[in-house]
Write a structure and sequence with these properties.
about 120 residues; mainly alpha; Arc Repressor Mutant, subunit A; three-stranded antiparallel β-sheet; about 60% helix
Amino acid sequence: MTKKPSPEDTAPICQEHHNHHISLEHMISEDNIDALADLLKVFGDPTRIRILHALSCQELCVCDIAEALGMTQSAISHQLRVLKQSRLVNYRREGKTIYYSLADSHVHAILAQGLEHVME
């Protein structure tokens, strides 16, 4: 069984390797940390990732998304509500049909970079 190092054992190492002090002006505010954590939680659901991926290709209505993902329109609508609240998707109405798209290029970039990361 290995002994866990005490703070006294690691203090010289930390002092030796960490001569830089982090300025408070470079720290992320607690509000921004919480907002980022909430955003990443939204990306933590496979169904929402599938929806966002479908929307990264083109604007779609609920019935098209449901058909593409093999899910009910009700299930898709529920997930779209979460995505709208998180400002990840936009929508527009054309007659009785509502079309959804990614909110902006940041959402597309997050998806693309995340996929690139997991495929490395």
